[in-house]
Amino acid sequence: MVKNVNVMIYKRFLSLLILMCVTAALIAQVQMPNSGFENWPGEAISCPKGWHSFSDASGPFSKTMSNKGAPGNLPALERVPGHTGNYAVVIRCNKVLGVSANGAITNGRLNMGSMSASSLKNHSYTDRANGYGFKFTGRPDSLSFWAKFETKDAVTASVKCHLHTDCNFRDPADLGQTSNIASAILYFKNTGNGKWRNYKQAFRAYDKVYTATASFSPTPTVNTWTRTPSYLLINFSTNRYIMSGSKGDALYIDDVRLIYNKNLSSIQLDGVDYFAYQKGTNTYLCIMDESANAPLPIVTAVAESPRAVVSVRQATPENPVAEIKVYHDDVFAGEAEPERYSIRFVPCTIPQSMAIGK
C-alpha cells in the first residue's frame, strides 16, 4: 500500500513538473503595460503609452472627435493626479453637434463608423496590423482597478476586458463568439461620493456561442474556463451605452491590475476534508495520536481557481511537515511567488481518560 502511494505521489509530481515547464514556456506577460498610467510621453491630453482614444481612432467619423474634445467641452482625455503614483487618466463625455460622445480609452483602437447609436460600426477592437493590440497569454481570475465617476445623471460607466484568440476582435460585435475566451465586464454607477474606489470583476467564459447586437450584449457566466488567449482587449467608457451620456460625465481611472487567485478551497488528509482549514490561514498544527501507530496522512489540496496548479510535498517521519504550494500564471512568468501552506504533524499520547467512551 505504501509503495502504491509513493508511486502515485511520484507520478503526480512528474505530471506537475511537466505542466509547469510547458506553462512557463507559454506565459510571456501577465500584467498590462503602463496599467498605472505613469508613462505619459506627450502632453496632458495625449494618450498614456500603450493606451488609445479618439486621437488614434479609425473610421469615417474619426475626425469629428479628438482627445482635445469638442469646442465648449473639457478635454475628452486628460492626465490628472493619480490614486497612487504621479498620474491617472480621466475620460469625459463630450457633446458634438448635439450628440453625446462617450469618453473612452482602450489598449486597442476605437472605430467611429456611424452616427447611429445602434450601429455596430462604432466599436473598439484589436487592430493587429497597425499595432493597436496587446499580445497576452495569461489566464487571470479577475480584473481590479481604482476609479472615480462623476456624473449628474443616473448613468452607468463600464469596463470590459476581453481575452481573445489571434484575431481583430471587436467589442461588442464579437462578444460570445468562439474567439472570445473569457471576459470581465462591469457596469457601475457614481457610488464613490467623489472618492477613489476599488472595483473588481471576475473573468468568465460564455456557456454557448452568442451573437451580439446593438441592443443585446451576452453575459459570461462560466468560471471553469482554461483556454489560453493570444490577446487582451480592455475598454473603459464613461457610459454603458453609445451616445447615452451627458456633457461632463467624467471617469477617473488608475492602478489597473490582473489578479491571479492562489487561494485554496480545501485541504484533505487521506481524502477527508481537513476540518481546521479556513481561508486566510496558511500554517496549521495537527495533533496525531501517537499510540495509534498510524502512518502520517497523505495531504491533498484543491485550489479555488481552475487555472491554478497545486503541488504538495508530503510529510515524513524525519520531517513531519507537509508543504503545499499553489502556482498560477504570474508565478510561471516569474512575476510572483507561489502561495505557501504548511501542516505540521505533532505526535502526542492521548491519556486513557480522554479517550472516547471513558
Structure description:
It is a single chain. By secondary structure, the protein is mostly beta strands. The protein folds into 2 domains: 2-25 and 262-354, Sandwich (Immunoglobulin-like), CATH 2.60.40; 31-259, BT2081, beta-jelly-roll domain (Jelly Rolls, Sandwich), CATH 2.60.120.890. Helix content is 8%, strand content 34%. The chain has helices at 2-26, 329-332; strands at residues 77-81, 87-92, 94-96, 99-101, 104-106, 109-112, 122-125, 134-135, 142-150, 157-164, 170-171, 180-188, 197-202, 231-237, 250-259, 264-269, 272-273, 283-289, 299-303, 309-313, 321-327, 339-348. The strands form 6 sheets. The chain has a 5-stranded antiparallel sheet with strand order 1-2-15-9-13, with no helix packed on it. Strands 5, 8, 10, 12 and 14 form a 5-stranded antiparallel sheet that branches. The chain has a 4-stranded mixed sheet with strand order 18-22-21-20. A hairpin with a 2-residue loop joins strand 16 and strand 17. The two termini are 33 Å apart.
Furnish the topology, listing elements before pairings.
Layout: H1 2-26, E1 77-81, E2 87-92, E3 94-96, E4 99-101, E5 104-106, E6 109-112, E7 122-125, E8 134-135, E9 142-150, E10 157-164, E11 170-171, E12 180-188, E13 197-202, E14 231-237, E15 250-259, E16 264-269, E17 272-273, E18 283-289, E19 299-303, E20 309-313, E21 321-327, H2 329-332, E22 339-348
Parallel strand pairs: 18-22
Antiparallel strand pairs: 1-2, 2-15, 3-4, 5-14, 6-7, 7-11, 8-14, 9-13, 9-15, 10-12, 10-14, 16-17, 16-19, 20-21, 21-22
